Amino acid sequence: MLQSLFDGILVGSILSLGAIGLTLIMHILRFANFSHAELIALGAYFALTLDAMVSGLSATLTTRLPHLSVSVSLILAMLLSLLLTGLLAALIDKLVFKRLRENAGPLTMVFASFGIGLIVRNVIGLIYGLKSTHYSNDIAFALMVSSDPLLLIKPDQLFILVLTIVVMLALHLLITRTSIGYALLAVSENPELAQVNGINLAAMIRLAWLLGGSLAAIAGVCYALNNQLSPVMGRDLVLSLFAAAIVGGIGSIYGAALGGLIVGLASSLALLYIPTGYKPAMPFVIILLALYVRPNGLLGEER
Fold it and tell me: Any idea where the domains of the chain sit in the sequence?
């Protein structure tokens, strides 16, 4: 039970990062962006390439942090990756979604997001191959924290957990302590009213894409560290991301964070009672329960 609880919190924290960008876009632009999950995979693979490039600049950059398989070059690569992924997300919006929302409707944008997701997934497979890989081939041994009940934790998992907490705190400070954060919240609540009050709606939409893409990249690196890099990472995570966004409440940043933890815990704890093969069905069950009990989500507002 304790091991499943820790694993659920770890997975949930990663899902929370990905779900925040998804729920922002869903609330501001009023469409379900199914290509968002592919940004997670893209960010992870960007970091893989940048890690090789940065480590080639100096041998000292390949030094691994104490007790971790994470190197200095990988941390730098992750920072560059979140910037590139955020910029690419904003570019996709400018080239595709901006034109569609001006000349079509939300349903057309949903279908377009499917197409973009498939394109991104296949481009990743074409460039990197279809086999799974890792950032490091070093074997990471788990430490026994407790024997009764059993709790095994890898140092990399603690790094992931601390990183996600730091990112969440930084996001909280951005939202609650800066004028940009206030403007972003205003746009997420009521875009038309925010624009009437002088907020640059186009700039806030770009910021939402940048922020969502950056968080997706961090989530991708964390997921790959905990599991492995695979071209189908986005496909495997898309339902969990939507479950987190729906459970937390569409448009609620804190709701997405809470929803990610709930989905992660539910999926992990469910394995204690059901066969592993049924795990992919858990996001569907969570979505149905959330819609039945509280259609607007835990922290969502009634419309």
Answer: 2-293
Distance CA 86, CA 173 (A): 19
**Angle, helix 2-29 to helix 233-248, in steps of 10 degrees:** 80
pTM: 0.91
CA dihedral 23, 29, 30, 35 (to 10 degrees): -60
Report d(CA 125, CA 138) in Å as an integer: 24
Output DSSP code: residue 94: I
- The C-alpha atoms of residue 186 and residue 171 are separated, in whole angstroms, by 16
Decide: helix, strand or coil at residue 198: coil
Q: CA-CA distance, 58 to 142, in Å (whole number)?
A: 30
Burial tier of 302 (Cβ tally within 10 Å: 0-12, 13-18, 19+): exposed
**For residues 267 and 283, is the Cβ–Cβ distance under 8 A?**
yes
- Contact by Cβ (8 Å): 238, 34: yes
Whose CA is closest to 49, among 71, 78, 87?
A: 78
Buried b (16+ CB within 10 A) or exposed e, 238-249: bbbbbbbbbbbb
Amino acid at 208: A
Asked if 243 and 283 count as a contact pair (C-beta separation under 8 A), the reply is yes
* Sign of the alpha-carbon dihedral angle for 240, 71, 135, 140: negative
Question: For 87-112, how does the pLDDT look when each residue is reduced to its tens digit (9 = 90+)?
Answer: 999 999 999 999 998 888 888 999 99
Nearest C-alpha neighbor of 244 from the set 254, 231, 234 = 254
Output the CATH code of domain 2-293. Answer: 1.10.3470
> Higher confidence at residue 140 or residue 115?
115
Give the pLDDT score at 301. 64
Using the predicted structure, report yes or no on whether residue 47 has a pLDDT greater than 90.
yes
Cα gap 217→84, rounded to integer Å: 9
